[in-house]
Amino acid sequence: MQRIAWLIPVLPLLGSAFHGLLGKRAGKAAVTAVALGTVGASFALALALFFAAKAAPGHRLDLAYFDWMAVGDLRVPFGLVFDPLSSVMALVVAGIGLLIHLYSVGYMWEEEGYARYFCYLNLFVFFMLTLVLGSSLPLLFVGWEGVGLCSYLLIGYYFETELASAAGLKAFLFNRVGDLGMIVGMMALFAAFGTLTVGDILGRAGHLAPEASFGVITFATLMMFVGATGKSAQIPLYLWLPDAMAGPTPVSALIHAATMVTSGIYLICRLAPLYELAPTTMTIVAWTGGITALFAATIGLFQRDIKKVLAYSTVSQLGYMFLGLGAAGFAAGFFHVFTHAWFKALLFLGAGSVIHGLHHQQDLFRMGGLKDRMPVTFWTMLIATLCIMGFPGTSGFFSKDEILYLAFLKSPALYVVGLLGAVCTAFYMWRLMALTFWGKPRDHHAHEHAHESPWTMTLPLALLAAGALLAGLLGLPKIWGGTFAIEGWLEPALAFGKAEAPGAAEHGSHALAWGLMALSTTLALASGLAGFLIYRKGTASEEAFAERNPALYRVLANKYFVDEGVEAGLLAPVRWIANLAWKFFDVILIDGVGVNLPGALARIAGDFTARTQTGRVRNYALGMAFGTVLLLWIFLR
What we know:
Structural class: mainly alpha
Mean pLDDT: 90
Largest sheet: 2 strands, antiparallel
Distance between the termini: 102 Å
Order of helices and strands: HHHEEHHHHHHHHHHHHHHHHHHHHHHHH
Number of helices: 27
């Protein structure tokens, strides 16, 4: 089995090649079979390797196939690693990716570019699996750049529209900024350790003491975090993710839930022992995550586009994950990655089902009364909403409160920031549910034609709902009689090269944990109830709030005008300078002085000399005579 482990990422790549080369001629049925078959086979192989790694010493399989790079002192093998961290990520990517592929069959069946869509989608899964399974930073970076490329292709899938093409380009460029930081970080790590193989770096780092001041480890981890802020949409590089809604809704589910945006969290978890050596970086990670979580949550309060609400929710939830990591809760942060993958995929696919049933209507203010029209979509989205708000007993409850508890241990101020974000999350999610499924229809034409989605879309919703409810069992906390099992499972990966897994100091108490949990749960439930009661009868309350508080409403509804600020303060000056440089260097110097001026002078000279060509012999003879006299005068004087 280990010899063919390379097929896990390669099978989706083969599927992508089939769709690109033969898909249009083969037909939609063949494309569907290949797309589902290749990702399904990858999931089956990943599951088999998961159990093989579980039985191996240290729950780890290192599979090196050949030397990929060998330049001077640099030796990088082409290899895969299956350990508790990468194997779980591979199962999440392939498993939830398979459900999203199945959902896409029903959602995209009528699209003309059906084969092109699955070509990109399979390619996305290939690169993401390469990212999580690569045993070296360069191979991880191949997957890192690959998912960036695929996000550009999928977000810009409707490239005929200006919105989609601009959104795809925006995602591509914002990620390039973060990727530069990651490249610099890899160079710093190579300078410090002389290798780019993750296992070797962590093994050597295990013998080092934490840096008391700013050093090479702090610099390298900060640069890697810059890359993580790009991929995982944290302040200041978060702006691309809300615009990623321009692609098909299943793409949003794949990007936001199980793949690309979790890359940054995975990277930091993979290098957890290294980050433990850089307390300055850890503090920056925690505060960046906490501020992003609250900032994005406040933006979600008054968005009207159902996908925009969920997009800012993703930015906020990713902030919680970084908050957990920065508080030294690597297992807690990764646990939220795992639970979030289930309920956020469910929310996006549920939103896609609503949009499909309403013939592409996305405005919450034009929905309402869909609870009975779309019962499967309603009940599954209700489960996902309970999870993301942290309703007691759901998966989101356990992962969110574990992060908030660790945040309090690091800094009470961090806890307050995270708590306020959780309160906002509960409010805007119940606002979304109330406006979508309760109350009277606000668009009667759309409501009359509303219908439940086909089974290819509702089956993934049901499976994701079950996963969202059960995923919390892997992180049942000790105060609930559990063992926080995922922490024990991840320990060999998070502690690689160290005596024990990195984590927050155990100076809390059960009483403190119960108190913090009760406070956050009470406030979230109260906020969710308020959101439901305010919006269950329609939009009148929000319209009244907008009239009473026009400035505050405009700021939140327009997302703090950050996009406009970037446009005015950064992009407009750059465009002005670029246009000036273009006109001076290209138009004036190159085209004007270098090309057009010599041509104009030659044309003028030609026009002037053309006047001497009269076609009369006597004129030519007279010219020859004057020429002869001139030459004699020159030579004989």
